[in-house]
Specification:
The protein contains ten helices and ten strands. The chain has about 280 residues and is an alpha+beta fold. Helix 8 (about 185-205) links the parallel strand 7 (about 170-185) and strand 8.
Length: about 280
């Protein structure tokens, strides 16, 4: 929570105005932010200065891990964040590769689970990482990347959180996650939750202790129409203590994640928060 608020204050105090061509809005922007989450000691990075819908963030992560390509699939597991980009993004609506309502194209989990190879076959990046780690292998390339410049036109949105790099030291697993762009008022807490839970889940199913997760953001910004709410409301609130996250210990394999796991398998203990803040969302 302290890291989150410190980044918000840094953007407000030191940020530069940048016009975003995709949305047509100005953003107050800083370059380079490094966040760190202590997964081993279950210091769950959940915002308390407003209500955080943590289950939707976990649902989105589950959809990525399953390789979902439709907003309808995400809605079915409790996540509505892809509705707008799938169905209201004018550039995507005009794209001849779009297959119809709710289609997201080849974004995020599609790349992670079925990266297209030159010979026409596909590579399951996630399965490779799980297999390696389960066998005690770290080849310094235990990487899952959603960033495929050759297929940007085949999806509704370039990935913001684009690469996850796992590292194994003895019996402890670490994660470094890279993000090119971050809408701090709306997106960052989703991203924090997902980095934390991804390390916790992969450690659990591969049989290791979870260490720390390192979250690197290149472009961190607050949209102009979000600034007043952040500056005058959210950062003036006093944070509560961080809650604890409990993950169902019966989740033991990637197949479990693919088939039966739901957001009900993730429980929070001791979550106190201030009232929700409805920040505008830029499509």
């Amino acid at each position: 929570m302290k890291q989150y608020l410190a980044l918000c204050e840094r953007i407000i105090e030191q940020g530069h105005w940048v016009e975003n061509k995709r949305t047509g809005q100005r953003c107050l922007t800083v370059i380079n932010a490094d966040l760190e989450y202590d997964v081993e000691n279950n210091q769950f990075p959940l915002i308390t200065t407003r209500k955080s819908y943590y289950k939707a963030a976990i649902a989105e992560l589950l959809g990525y891990l399953r390789g979902y390509n439709s907003a309808e699939q995400f809605r079915a597991i409790g996540c509505n964040t892809w509705n707008a980009n799938a169905n209201e993004n004018q550039a995507w609506l005009n794209n001849p590769h779009r297959k119809g309502e709710d289609d997201m194209g080849r974004v995020y989990g599609v790349q992670g689970r079925s990266w297209q190879k030159p010979d026409g076959s596909t590579l399951d990046q996630l399965q490779k990482v799980i297999d390696d780690l389960s066998g005690g292998v770290d080849d310094r390339g235990e990487i899952i990347t959603f960033y495929n410049p050759g297929e940007f036109e085949l999806g509704c949105l370039r990935p913001c959180m684009h690469t996850h790099n796992f590292s194994l030291l003895g019996d402890t697993l670490y994660l470094t996650s890279y993000q090119r762009s971050c809408d701090v008022p709306l997106g960052l807490n989703f991203n924090q939750i997902q980095v934390f839970v991804l390390l916790a889940l992969v450690a659990q199913i591969t049989g290791y202790k979870a260490g720390k997760a390192y979250h690197k953001i290149v472009n961190a910004h607050i949209y102009e129409n979000q600034l007043e709410l952040m500056r005058d409301v959210q950062i003036k609130r006093t944070p509560f203590a961080s809650p604890q996250l409990h993950i169902n210990p019966e989740i033991k394999t990637l197949n479990d994640i693919e088939t039966w796991v739901t957001t009900d398998d993730f429980k929070l203990e001791g979550y106190q928060h201030h009232d929700a803040i409805k920040y505008p969302f830029a499509v």
